[in-house]
Design a protein that fits this description.
This protein is α+β, with helices and mostly antiparallel strands. Helix content is 30%, strand content 30%. The N and C termini lie far apart (105 Å).
């Protein structure tokens, strides 16, 4: 067995499945395992993913957030043992691979447009079919039936008066 083959086997065993389901521009919560003495706790780092680089076990991503109008960036190894999980809060609509232009912005200027489309469609499909029916459509009657109902009420009122 060649050295490259051996390295690829070792790297494949270290890759954690399901960690790469986010993209640049997404707002994510990175849950980190923090060990203090004998205790272990989870700390959450929330921010926008401004870049990803590397492949396989060497892949890493950079998350940026604002703390007191000061930008804080942190680079995380995607398959590192200190990462418990990565949650995607929202997806940003972007057209670049690296969002380094966000470094020059502060406050509301750092917001990205929210991506709409496929995610919304999937959420609608997951809803039960009964909930998809609009209440107005279910209770609405054709115009002819409404007119007939009004005439019937008028006739009833006229009969009550006599």
């Amino acid at each position: 067995m060649a050295v490259k083959d051996l390295m690829s086997v070792v790297e494949k065993s270290q890759v954690k499945a399901g960690r790469g389901n986010f993209r640049v521009g997404d707002t994510v919560d990175v849950h980190l395992k923090i060990i203090e003495g004998e205790k272990e706790r989870i700390q959450v780092f929330t921010g926008i993913v401004i870049g990803r680089k590397g492949t396989g076990v060497n892949e890493s991503f950079t998350v940026r957030r604002l703390v007191g109008n000061e930008g804080v960036e942190r680079v995380f190894p995607l398959h590192g043992p200190t990462i418990d999980r990565i949650e995607v809060k929202k997806s940003g609509k972007i057209r670049r691979a690296k969002l380094y232009f966000l470094r020059d912005r502060v406050g509301k200027a750092t917001r990205l447009a929210v991506k709409r489309g496929l995610g919304d469609v999937l959420k609608k499909e997951e809803a039960p079919a009964e909930a998809a029916v609009k209440p107005r459509q279910a209770t609405s009657k054709p115009a002819e039936e409404k007119a007939e109902a009004k005439e019937a009420k008028k006739e009833e009122k006229a009969a009550e008066k006599k």
